[in-house]
Amino acid sequence: MRILTATMIAGAMMLGAMGASLAQGALPEGVKAAGGIFTNASGMTLYTFDNDKEPGKSACNGPCLTNWPAVTAAADAKASGDWTVITRDEGAKQWAYKGKPLYTFKNDAKAGDQVGDNRGNVWHTAKP
User: Fold this and answer.
1) What gap in Å lies between CA 84 and CA 105, rounded to an integer?
2) CA–CA dist 126, 128 (Å, integer)
3) Which of 18, 25, 37, 79 is packed most tightly, with the most Cβ within 10 A?
4) Residue 57 to residues 81, 102, 110: CA-CA distances in angstroms?
5) How many other C-beta atoms are found inside a 10 Å radius of the C-beta of residue 8?
6) pLDDT tens-digit readout, 66-89
């Protein structure tokens, strides 16, 4: 019985590790999940915009895009799970999570900053 229990515990631990690995592997290149938020490869916080009402479409253009740079995707990037690639009005590719385009904030000075969170009551830290 003890051998069976130990085997079951070891199996559960392995499945848990595999699940975490699969979730991590499902993230697009250049995106990390750490501390309950999404960041880019440099550790800068990613955000969503409430005005992005149409799934897969960004409403942030012009001066908005200067303040809130889009999280760009490579031209050959492929959707996977909750992650999709949208085409912006100017033709650039952008990552979206659950249909919400992702951005960084120009006033976040260092990795981990979340200066943009709840900015104008429409910008929010992107979370898994």
Assistant:
1) 21
2) 7
3) 37
4) 18, 11, 28
5) 10
6) 999 999 999 999 999 999 999 999
Most distant pair of Cα atoms in the chain: their distance: 66
How far are the Cα atoms of 30, 109, 123 from residue 100, in angstroms, in the given order?
A: 17, 24, 11
Say whether pTM exceeds 0.85: no
Token pair recorded at residue 66? 């200067």
User: d(Cα 104, Cα 81) in Å, to the nearest integer?
Assistant: 22
Determine the average pLDDT of the residues in 14-38. 67
pLDDT at 13 over 60: no
In this prediction, residue 26 carries a pLDDT of: 84
Tokens of 103: 């951005």
Give residue for tokens 């033709």.
Answer: 91
Cα–Cα distance measured from residue 37 to residue 15, given in angstroms and rounded to the nearest whole number? 23
Element (H, E) at 14: helix 2-25
Q: Supply the pLDDT for residue 15.
A: 36
Q: Which two tokens stand for residue 33?
A: 């999940």
